[in-house]
What does this fold into?
Amino acid sequence: MSALESLRARLAELADLSSLGRLAAWDQRTMMPPGGAAARAQQFAALERLTHARATSDEIGAWLGDVDGDGDLSDVDRDVVRVARRDWEHLRRVPVDLAAARVQASAEAQAIWQVARAGSDFAMFAPALERNVELAREYAACFDNGGHPYDALLADYDYGLSAARVQEIFGPLAQALPPLVAEAAARPAAPDLPVPVEAQQAAVLGVLRRLGVGDEQWRVDVSPHPFSLAMSPTDLRVTTRYTGASVESLLAAVHEYGHALYEHQIAPELARTNLGRGTSMSVHESQSKLWENHVARHRAFATVMAAEFATAGVAVEPDALHALVKRVRPSLIRVEADQLTYPLHIVMRFELELALIDGTLAVADLPTAWNDGIRRLLGVEVPDDARGVLQDIHWAAGSFGYFPSYALGCLIAAQLWECLESELGPQDDALRSGDVESIRAWLGEHVHRHGRRLDTEPLVARATGGGIDADPFLRYASAAA
Amino acid sequence: MSALESLRARLAELADLSSLGRLAAWDQRTMMPPGGAAARAQQFAALERLTHARATSDEIGAWLGDVDGDGDLSDVDRDVVRVARRDWEHLRRVPVDLAAARVQASAEAQAIWQVARAGSDFAMFAPALERNVELAREYAACFDNGGHPYDALLADYDYGLSAARVQEIFGPLAQALPPLVAEAAARPAAPDLPVPVEAQQAAVLGVLRRLGVGDEQWRVDVSPHPFSLAMSPTDLRVTTRYTGASVESLLAAVHEYGHALYEHQIAPELARTNLGRGTSMSVHESQSKLWENHVARHRAFATVMAAEFATAGVAVEPDALHALVKRVRPSLIRVEADQLTYPLHIVMRFELELALIDGTLAVADLPTAWNDGIRRLLGVEVPDDARGVLQDIHWAAGSFGYFPSYALGCLIAAQLWECLESELGPQDDALRSGDVESIRAWLGEHVHRHGRRLDTEPLVARATGGGIDADPFLRYASAAA
It folds into this structure.
């Protein structure tokens, strides 16, 4: 085998192992009986150790050296080699002991966090969080590239972005969005629609079928936290949840559909290479948010959703449904936030974790900073740390650098949607009849097919003609307000 | 790490990879949308390659060498090392090219077999079968231990048994069973009971709950061919199938429960070692057959099953139910055979594959030999090869040596049941009230807990005081006839 063939065989193996890991994760969250938990944790650990060993082995370095001599690689192969080199060098920068210490500290901190959150006891959690911050800083120091230490953490989720760039993007958002939220929230709140769970289930399946979800390549299941995982581009699994009489199940299902469609439409030639998955957390989130914010929350699409509820035996006025899914109400909990307040929850978390990492904010001062931020950005008082600084698992898991992608996804979604409508024309008529074929095709062409060949901001630039930009989202928010 | 610790760590890794493979297999057969098939096949291949590399590596040989010096191993560790050495030497006997050729020939032959079976065209299948036989003989030649070449094939499913020993066991069975079958089949056949699928589903869950199946550690799903796989000893997955108005779903579910219970009751100290699974195909089959033949087909248990049908709204007389599940009718298809004719289907397959492997039967003569055997043992005429020699996948898959375990399982089950009742007393009263606690405990103590520490016949000897023996099954058959 040539160096390229050897490299590609190893990358295929790593892709297969990654698929098995996703299957184990999907099963854990949908099917596994509780008794399977301990063994499953060991299986994940074994897979992680093996994957790390296979992804960092010396052979890869040798193949990367030899392939350089080849010269006339195809465009795809050049990208395969470029990203393989980047990943290999990245993984090998981190000492094994440090990686193990992070995993262990993360597991311990999550266990403490669960108890601390239940008792709203931040002091109990603080030492574990301090340990996570310290290890994150050590990890960042492995990549001394002259920038902010946060840049290295961000790179694990969104390669190529920097703390400075995120600040530049989030700055205008933090200024302009709160007044729009206040304006929208001042209007009379649309009332809840009491839709029985059975009708929700039927509507979820009906709406997803309209979006192209069929039995040949999809599964729709239930999980406590909705998620989506692609076992392969033609084996797509989305979940939603049914929590009493609400239409949240429908928004969640459409959101997860957006994630899955991304993996579905990656160019087949990238399958089982290192390029055959979504390029970053923020682009992935842009895909879920595009379908959630710009399709499911579109006035025209309310007609389709109402029709599916009607088929399920529940009469809902499209206007009432649209008003409900667009309702804006500042609140305490990120995962329950509406489409306008959501990015503000994220902007604050980004500011706080940046300050934790560069040492300008002490862990002890975090609850006060949190409560001040929520008051400043959302005008809400935090009654206790359980509903404040302790609500998310990310810091307990040591996942600093993850949060920004949630808000960047909202912004990129709005940019893509503006571009899509400017190229294809307004989608009102198509959405009213539930025809999303043009939207799927446009996203496939401009976003999905590239896989990891383009990083976040180059991909956005190529699709929209510019970098990440808060203005389209702010226009979306103005229209809503 | 000491040599023993290193060895144990590798064995734990292999156990974890094996669990992931079982998860992938379970998912493939219960949950996976059709679009996932191609990628899943690649994932299996990747797992197989990686597992083979990790199971045959030189390091294991070094650890096995070093551990010899230690001297004072625990009993379990001595068995861990003994079986690890056996497995490692076994795997390394086979050249990589031969192993790969067998896998490829198996895949190709299965594809041809599917078409050939659909068209009842043995001639189309014959060359692929010849190739499988040839490769099986090459494989057997890797283990030139002076015995019959079939012994090496048998060892992959039932270590320690030999062709001669199986002939010795099956001989009396092939003589004594056909007249008993004829006697039972001569009686008026019990009529079918038309039980709607919904009632069957309720009864399956109700009966399994009586046997100890709870949501904490079990799943019950549907698949075209019922099976059972343990993700771990506390994550057990059984399936059944519902094919129209029949009680087959119930027998299949109890059969699969028997397999799963075996894995469930293996001693916890053997978890994630090379000993932490059922010891052989025939002992595994003995566990499913014990629950199917001796519990589900027990007169007293018909009361429990009828009660569950009644709860599901279907009135069934226990006597009628018992007569139905005990009904004997010689037929063409192995997987549809009743409890008495089933071993005869197997005895014939064993004789034929033994002759194929030692070269005394040519592939071209196989259909005639098959049809003669069915006439001789079951008194039935085979109308075409689709319902004859082409019905099973095993030879297409190259799995010679697998068939005997199905009949050995029936025999061992009868032996264990006689022993169990002689030690615990007749189980009629307990079964009438659905109390299987003593049965579970007895099997746990005498069979399950040992895992792979005892091979098939030593385990049977320890549990029953003698080797594998057809007499108890023949007594069971006489009582039925």
Observations:
- Chain A touches chain B through 38 residues (CB under 8 Å).
- The longest strand of chain A covers residues 235-240.
- Residues 3-92 of chain A form one domain.
- The radius of gyration of chain A is 22 Å.
